[in-house]
User: Fold this.
Amino acid sequence: MTDAQPKIWVINGPNLNLLGQREPHIYGHQTLKDIETGLMDQGQGLGLRVECFHNNHEGGLIDLIHSAPAAGVKWIIINAGAYTHTSIALRDALAGVALPYIEVHLSNVHAREAFRHQSYLSEKAAGIIVGLGSEGYRLALEYISRKR
Assistant:
């Protein structure tokens, strides 16, 4: 990989470290590490430098997002987990750095509990992918590869 390759950050929020064991009938059997490894490999094939992050804490996610412009990040793919539905601060961090991002959810949040229907992130997102499992991350990466 070279420094000339656009840098894409994949950011995952709370409880996504439990993928593969947490409610696999909803979230699937792949682990977060499986998904991240696949995305890094896919990114290499697309000429993108993919870096993956996970944090269970809202402040950690916000600090990470704040550091993205200085790190040379061009796009963010984010699955904020439950913070999607609760965190105005996370929404403001994404708006504040003014980087394009794609919101991804493994499950179809609109077919689940009513509290999951509201997203504080969607309004500013370049796109939203829900309900396609880990394929949603891969589709987001393919889209970004065509938009650079």
User: Anything to note?
Assistant: Strands lie at 7-12, 49-54, 73-79, 101-105, 127-130. The chain has a mean pLDDT of 93.
